[in-house]
Write a structure and sequence with these properties.
Layout (H helix, E strand, L loop, with lengths): L2 E5 L4 H12 L3 E6 L5 E3 L2 E5 L5 H9 L6 E4 L10 E2 L4 E2 L2 H26 L11 E8 L1 H4 L5 H20 L5 E8 L5 H6 L2 H10 L9 H13 L7 E4 L10
Parallel strand pairs: 1-2, 1-5, 2-4, 5-8, 8-9, 9-10
Antiparallel strand pairs: 3-4, 6-7
Helix pairs in contact: 1-8, 2-3, 3-5
This protein binds nicotinamide-adenine-dinucleotide (NAD).
The site of nicotinamide-adenine-dinucleotide has 31 residues, from helix 1, strand 2, helix 3, strand 8 and helix 6.
Length: about 240
């Protein structure tokens, strides 16, 4: 049985991870801003903000040890740098909030979890734990209006290898899943039907949104395979994001 901390476990990709891991008999704690403190379907939900040290420590304290962290908390927004119709620049606050949650928040959880994970016994590979971050293929293929999401995803991708190197001496692996487009509330609430059709067109095979369970499946494999470390793995059905005509 593994002890797992999942951020963003109330919804979407994180929720699928919580459900899969709990079904497999692992001990799962989720930290999420939008939940209340409760235990449901063998997942212990803690309400809190990944940017807040006390909230993260509270979630960490609910596990006797942490074998894996799957970081799925995050937000997305779409805006162009300048609105030439209203003649207004984009609000700096929106860009800052996006980076604060997606990048600073992720960093905050990692730095606090690493300490506890490093106290685990080593396995036969000399490893103590595994960390998975979630970024987006928009790190490299972003469209107009996606500057913020591109910047936060690129930051997480760039952090992956140095984090793996930072933590090599204590036997902690770090990998990132760069997702394409998945059927989660984040995508379903923010995208128009026109854009959803475009996403399907840009995703050749399978030509559909990803199922969050497919994300959870890969997260589990990354945790299980001791040789995968410092990698950014695209999970996107070969989605490439061409300029729209
Ligand atoms: N779904 C996609 O197609 C897609 C594509 C690219 C990237 N992503 C990224 O994957 C991650 C998960 O996305 P999702 O689709 O599951 O979204 P989602 O909105 O369904 O779930 C995200 C969860 O993160 C939580 N959260 C947000 N800010 C938080 C904070 N400060 N502290 C704690 N929890 C917080 C939310 O409450 C929510 O439950 C996000 O970082 C998102 O940007 C998703």
């Amino acid at each position: 049985m593994l002890s797992c901390l999942v951020t963003g476990g109330h919804s979407g990709l994180g929720r699928a991870v919580c459900q899969r891991f709990a079904r497999a008999g692992h001990r799962v704690v989720s930290l999420d801003l939008m939940t209340e403190d409760k235990t449901e379907d063998n997942v212990q939900h803690i309400r809190g903000d990944v940017r807040n040290e006390a909230d993260v420590q509270k979630a960490i304290s609910r596990l006797p040890k942490i074998d894996c962290l799957v970081s799925c908390s995050g937000v997305a927004n779409a805006f162009k740098i300048f609105n030439f119709e209203s003649k207004r620049p984009q609000r700096l606050e929106d860009f800052k909030t996006l980076l604060e949650i997606n990048v600073f928040g992720t960093f905050n959880v990692l730095r606090l979890v690493a300490h506890k994970m490093a106290q685990n016994q080593t396995d036969p590979n000399g490893q103590r734990g595994s960390i998975i971050l979630t970024s987006s293929i928009l790190a490299t293929d972003a469209h107009e209006g996606q500057t913020g999401t591109a910047a936060s995803s690129a930051a997480l991708n760039s952090m992956t290898l140095p984090l793996a190197r930072d933590l090599k001496d204590v036997g902690i692996r770090v990998n990132t899943i760069a997702v394409g487009f998945f059927a989660t509330p984040l995508v379903e609430r923010s995208e128009s039907q026109e854009l959803l059709s475009f996403i399907r067109l840009a995703t050749p095979c399978p030509s559909r949104l990803g199922d969050p369970e497919e994300f959870a499946h890969l997260a589990e494999r990354l945790i299980r395979n001791p040789m995968i470390n410092g990698s950014i793995i695209r999970l996107d059905g070969a989605c490439r994001w061409p300029e729209r005509g």
